[in-house]
Design brief:
Number of helices: 3
Largest sheet: 5 strands, antiparallel
Helix content: 25-40%
Distance between the termini: 24 Å
CATH class: Alpha Beta
CATH superfamily: Peptide deformylase
Structural class: alpha+beta
Number of domains: 1
Shape: globular
CATH topology: Peptide Deformylase
Bound molecules: zinc ion
CATH architecture: Alpha-Beta Complex
Number of strands: 7
Length: 169
């Protein structure tokens, strides 16, 4: 398994609207395995394909506690079919915006449909951290990064800090 390169803001690729997957095959599964390896190495709890430069509607996630057993989840062509009126605020971060965090409001719960690792249709009712994380990741598939919800001043500052951080690396 390979660790892939994670792109960071302001890379214009992050604004791409990703295209649906048409075939779930071994090549795609190998790519999702690489995405998961990359996410664990970062470390992070969610990663969208566009964050490693591939504009397809694929996400990997693992929101299990750090010391608990790993619980990888794969979402192909995820689609939100319902969101709760109730909102929740979570201090979000993103592997494409390293070391920057901000409070973001999102629906507290959502329902979604998707294809699993084997290409089988699934649906799930997400709550808590799962709901927040999956909405954050689906945003990536639509070209949205969480700092897009901030004021333009806060967003500019975050991007400037990331650029500085990357340069120092
Ligand atoms: Zn992200």
């Amino acid at each position: 398994m390979n660790i892939l390169n994670i792109i960071t803001v302001p890379d214009p690729l992050l604004k791409t609207v990703s295209v649906p997957v048409t075939v779930v095959d071994d090549e795609l599964r190998a790519f999702m395995d690489d995405m998961l390896t990359t996410m664990y190495a970062a470390p992070g709890i969610g990663l969208a394909a566009i964050q490693v430069g591939r504009p397809i509607r694929v996400l990997v996630m693992d929101i299990a506690d750090e010391d608990a057993e790993k619980k990888p989840q794969y979402f192909i062509n995820p689609e939100v079919t319902w969101t709760s009126d109730e909102l929740t605020t979570f201090n979000e971060g993103c592997l494409s915006v390293p070391d920057q965090y901000a409070d973001i409001d999102r629906p507290a719960e959502c329902k979604l449909t998707y294809l699993d690792y084997h290409g089988n249709p699934q649906n799930v009712h997400a709550t808590g951290l799962f709901a927040t994380c999956i909405q954050h990741e689906i945003d990536h598939l639509n070209g949205i990064v969480f700092i897009d919800y901030l004021s333009s001043l806060k967003k500019t500052i975050a991007i400037r800090k990331v650029k500085k951080l990357i340069k120092e690396d």
